[in-house]
From TrEMBL:
Family annotation (SUPFAM superfamilies): Glyoxalase/Bleomycin resistance protein/Dihydroxybiphenyl dioxygenase (SSF54593)
The entry's keywords: Methyltransferase, Transferase, Ubiquinone
PANTHER family: PROTEIN YJDN, PROTEIN YJDN-RELATED
MF terms (GO), sorted A to Z: methyltransferase activity
Domain annotation PhnB-like: ranges: 4-129
GO BP term, pick one: methylation
Family annotation (Gene3D superfamilies): 2,3-Dihydroxybiphenyl 1,2-Dioxygenase, domain 1
The keyword Methyltransferase belongs to this UniProt entry's keyword annotation: yes
Entry protein name: PhnB protein, putative DNA binding protein 3-demethylubiquinone-9 3-methyltransferase domain protein
Keyword Methyltransferase: yes
Superkingdom of the organism of origin: Bacteria
Positions of transmembrane segments: none
Amino acid sequence: MATMPYLHFQGRCAEALAFYAEVLGGTDLALMRYAESPDARPEWKDAPHVMHGQVRLGDGVLMASDFPPGMEGDPQKAVSIMQTFPDPDSTRAAFDRLREGGDVIQPFGPTFFSRGFGMLRDRFGTHWILSAEPEGGTMSRDEVEEPEAHPT
């Protein structure tokens, strides 16, 4: 299992991650736009917003995204804790416990990128993103496809 911070931006995720990579010596910058998602809504077609981005910083990975196009959020308050689990059952068990007294943001279930995924705010106000690792464990860097460059 891995735990890491997950930052949220209002349309500036690509710019922010590129800046952090430059300043902090990051490598392996990867971005996936909302428009590239197989579940993309028609209004997201031309949006440059990042659905998921990450950059390797030393031994860790900083992950981030933009709020979906058309959704407002306050990046100053938008930090989540990303926790991965080896399988959907352990992910679901943690999700169910953390949601007690909290609020579900994204109901738990399979997605095109995870066998089990959910987002919530726990009873203490902490935002969590929980995800099951891909079948067979964590993907290597060689398995992650680099998306085409998009203007920011």
